[in-house]
Every structure is written in C-alpha cells, then in structure tokens.
Amino acid sequence: MNDPCDYKVGDWHKKLGYFKECPVCKTTFWGRKNQKYCDPKCKGKVAIEKLAAKNKKYGKNIQQYMKNAEILESLYPGLNELKPVPKALLYGKGFNDSGIQKKVKYKRFEGEWNLIGEYAYKLDESKQNIFIIKSKDNGKL
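The structure corresponding to this sequence follows.
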C-alpha cells in the first residue's frame, strides 16, 4: 500500500506524512500536516497574486494622493502669500478631497488644515475658496 494511487487526499502515512493536493497546480504530494503547497514556486505564485490584489486596491488611492499633491503645488501662490484660490479651479483640475490626507494645526493659522504631501489647504469661511500653504514654509508667512 505504498502506491500513491492507494491513498486519498488527507490520508496519513507514518514515514511519508500526509497525502495532499496543491491548491495551485493540483499536484498530489506527501507533506507535513500544515503544508499547503507542493513547492516554493506554488507558494510564491499565491503570494504574488495576493500582493497584486492589494496593490490594485490601494494603487488608486496612492495615484489620487499624488495627483492631489501635484494640483496643490501647481496652485500654490508662493512664499509670503496667502491668497484665496477658487475651489472650483481646484476641483476642476481633478482634485479629490476624500483621499489620503492628514489633519494638522499651525500656530500661525487658525483652524484645521488638510496636509497632502508638503502642501496644506483649508477652505475659507464662505467655502468657495481655499488657501494653500507649503507646510515647511508655514512659519515664514
């Protein structure tokens, strides 16, 4: 009864271990009780597929974050200036404020600012305009 045809998946042999089927390539093999894959290639293939799915999920958020940072940089009025920028202009360029950002407070400016990359923005009281500052320059205004 040492012929693999005599065993079914899940059977145990005291010298060979458990008779298993690889979920990737469907090859049958003998292995430890907790062993899932027939060899490291199949295990690596599963790991790569999981990573690709994770990157696909988070990739859109990262792309939007980078786009938002570029938009803020392009609209930044410059050092020593705190001029309102029309909100419609910001969103017209493809800005999306529901993405990754950090809430911050600055001593020189009231309220909470939204930090994206090295730029922070805040809506004015009318909610029609935004102010943009460069976070490392916030003490120089």
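The mean pLDDT is 85.
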